[in-house]
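Why do we care about 3D structure at all? Because function follows from shape, and shape follows, mostly, from sequence. That is the central idea of this module. The next example makes it concrete: a single protein chain, its amino acid sequence, and then its structure expressed as tokens.
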Amino acid sequence: TASGDLAAFGSVTTVRVIHPEGAEVDPELVENLEEAIDLDPEERFDEHKYELGKTQLLTLLAEQGYCHATVEGSVRILRAALTAEVDYRVTAGPTCDVGEVTVEGQADLPVGPILRASKLRTGTLYDSSDILDAQQAIFALGAFSTVEVEAEVVDGVNVVPIVIRVTPAQRDRFMLGGGIQ
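And the structure:
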């Protein structure tokens, strides 16, 4: 029956990560990319997991400094063999460095503590997860009602300027708190 055929369809999934010729990528990164894919070769093909795999690969690459990375994928269904062959084509591109880190909106508050809390340093390897970490660290200073940290990734440019936008908290606000011990 048709429903019986669909239940068995894609019972085996083959996953391959392919790097284009000339891309010099650290072998450890290649291993991490392969581990990031959440498709189990013994399970039925899952399109959601396939699409999620592209996002996971891009995230991992951005955390390793590859801010211009691209991931394309394709799935080839082999009906006779009841398999799905999944190919991810990864183009890492060159690594990117953190460019100038600027602070906007701090009013009369000093920039130094904001920059130190962010831990973002010009010339270091760009890591997309550092953006969220910086935002949380600056907000934890307690002096701001909003904190936005934005990486300005521009195609073809391997230096990523970072803009930190803050809104100072009201200095005359009154806060109440309570607790049970």
